[in-house]
Design goal:
This protein is an all-beta fold and 193 residues long. It is built from no helices and 17 strands.
Length: 193
């Protein structure tokens, strides 16, 4: 993991290739907890979330590879709920979104997808101020919105090159009231209100 300053210079780096605590295979996302800890998701055999302190020292690991609740198969994106009580995880290969307690590791499935439903391969994740979740789905090529309880509220996109269509949407984020989608299959970034 590399830490850059705002001029693009590397300030610090930590971790190395491996399966032990503090080591990584394929890091996928990073978020910062209300507890001032650093949370990093990874896959490639580790399929877990590692937690580090501000001194970049390993603190604990959440989850493990697998299909049971609290386990992961490619935890692709992670983000805390607005109250900081839960870490939301786009668990891509398990076709689900999970909620996990950042200390105890207690987990529950918020949304379970399948091979034909709207949620097939959740990749990008953004938790909004009201707790609702935006999820980009590689399988259905859609942007999905779920309530904080995991109920589908809206769906947009669908496979294609045209306006309003998506191909392999990878990331979703919000800034200044706008939603941005990395539409990787179309080599573009979309901005939607």
């Amino acid at each position: 993991v590399l830490i850059y300053d705002n001029q693009g210079q590397v300030l610090h780096e930590f971790g190395r290739y491996g399966t032990e605590a503090g080591e990584f295979i394929y890091p996928t996302d990073i978020t910062f907890g209300p507890d001032d800890l650093i949370y990093i998701s990874e896959y490639g055999g580790n399929d877990r979330i590692q937690v580090f302190n501000q001194d970049l020292e390993w603190v604990r690991t959440l989850g493990s590879p697998g299909v049971e609740v609290g386990q992961f198969q490619r935890p692709q994106s992670i983000m805390f709920t607005p109250d900081g009580e839960q870490l939301i995880v786009a668990d891509a290969r398990n076709r689900r979104v999970q909620s996990i307690h950042p200390v105890t590791g207690e987990a529950r499935v918020l949304v379970q997808g399948d091979v034909v439903g709207p949620l097939q391969v959740p990749f990008g994740l953004w938790v909004q101020a009201d707790g609702s979740m935006l999820v980009t789905d590689l399988g259905s090529h859609r942007l999905l919105k779920y309530s904080a309880a995991g109920e589908l509220q809206s769906s947009a996109g669908g496979w294609g090159w045209g306006e309003g269509q998506l191909r392999d949407p990878w990331v979703v984020m919000q800034q200044a009231g706008q939603t941005f989608i990395l539409d990787s299959g179309n080599s573009r970034i979309l901005s939607v209100p």
